[in-house]
């Protein structure tokens, strides 16, 4: 059975996710941990629960989602995976991280580029990779059918959507991605976003002011 544990890290209040099942194998998704106590919180949970991270995944590579990449990758000696279109986004972080107060940011590089439709496997679990560009060019979400859950990054939020005014963002593309890709998932699917509380696909179809029914009525 899939378990999803969330942590909220860094001044951007970014949601980091740790996914694991009965085998104790785990995925770390979007590690935003930067301060020593944040890294310690993640490490303590993994240690106390005897988990074994096997992959590090980025939904996308904006600074708030990758601050802990180097720490997680080196601590657990695991590969880093993200979409190829995020390569330039990630490598740009080093050029501006100090301006946001992250002078000790450590860069990281991909070990594997995820393709749309690729299965992310760990333990007895597999997640489907779905490409939803718009917030960033290579943004991915990861869907687990068995638990009706989706790790959604910064594409769709409760009552909102990801910002599109950053380099590589495009508003119309994001709207299309959500309506054609995310809204194709069952209404009962829970979306675990990169910031804020979880939501359900059906709820956002009905009430989201940007992509819901009222926005197109």
Topology:
Elements (H helix, E strand, L loop, with lengths): L2 E7 L4 E7 L4 E5 L6 H13 L3 E6 L5 H4 L2 H8 L3 E3 L4 H10 L15 E2 L5 E4 L2 E7 L8 E5 L4 E5 L2 E2 L2 E2 L9 H10 L9 E4 L5 E2 H7 L10
Parallel strand pairs: 3-4, 4-5, 5-6, 10-13
Antiparallel strand pairs: 1-2, 2-3, 7-8, 8-9, 9-10, 11-12, 13-14
Briefly, what is this?
The chain has 217 residues and is an alpha/beta fold.
Detailed description of the structure:
One of its GO terms (molecular function) is metal ion binding. Its cofactor is Zn(2+). Keywords: Hydrolase, Metal-binding, Zinc. This is Glyoxylase, beta-lactamase superfamily II. A hairpin with a 2-residue loop joins β7 and β8. The protein has six helices and 14 strands. 43% of the residues are buried. The radius of gyration is 16 Å and the shape is globular. It has 217 residues and is α/β, with parallel strands linked by helices. The strands form three sheets. The protein has a six-stranded mixed beta sheet, with helices on one face. Strands 7-8-9-10-13-14 form a six-stranded mixed beta sheet.
Q: Give the CATH H-level superfamily.
A: Ribonuclease Z/Hydroxyacylglutathione hydrolase-like
> What fraction, in percent, of the residue positions are helical?
10-25%
Average pLDDT value? 97
Strands across the major sheet, in which order?
1-2-3-4-5-6
Number of distinct beta strands: 14
Q: Count helical runs.
A: 6
Architecture (CATH level 2) name = 4-Layer Sandwich
SS class:
alpha/beta
Basic shape:
globular
Straight-line N-to-C gap: 40 Å
SSE pattern, N- to C-terminal: EEEHEHHEHEEEEEEEHEEH
Quickly count the domains: 1
Strand content: 25-35%
CATH first level: which class?
Alpha Beta
> What is the rounded Rg?
16 Å
């Amino acid at each position: 059975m899939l378990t999803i544990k969330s942590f909220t890290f860094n001044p951007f209040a970014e949601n980091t996710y740790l996914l694991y099942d009965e085998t104790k194998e785990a995925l770390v998704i979007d590690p935003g941990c930067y301060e020593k106590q944040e890294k310690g919180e993640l490490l303590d949970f993994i240690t106390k629960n005897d988990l074994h991270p096997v992959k590090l995944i980025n939904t996308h590579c904006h600074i708030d989602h990758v601050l802990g990449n180097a720490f997680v990758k080196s601590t657990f000696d695991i590969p880093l995976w993200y979409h190829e279109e995020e390569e330039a986004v990630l490598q740009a972080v080093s050029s501006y991280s100090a301006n946001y107060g992250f002078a000790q940011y450590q860069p990281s590089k991909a070990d594997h580029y995820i393709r749309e439709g690729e299965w992310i496997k760990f333990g007895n679990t597999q997640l489907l990779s779905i490409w939803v560009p718009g917030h960033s060019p290579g943004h991915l979400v990861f869907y687990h059918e068995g638990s009706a859950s989706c790790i959604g990054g910064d594409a769709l939020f409760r009552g909102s959507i990801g910002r599109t005014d950053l380099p590589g963002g495009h508003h119309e593309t994001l709207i299309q991605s959500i309506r054609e890709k995310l809204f194709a998932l069952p209404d009962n699917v829970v979306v675990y976003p990169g910031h804020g509380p979880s939501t359900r696909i059906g709820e956002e179809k009905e009430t989201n002011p940007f992509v819901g029914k009222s926005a197109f009525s």
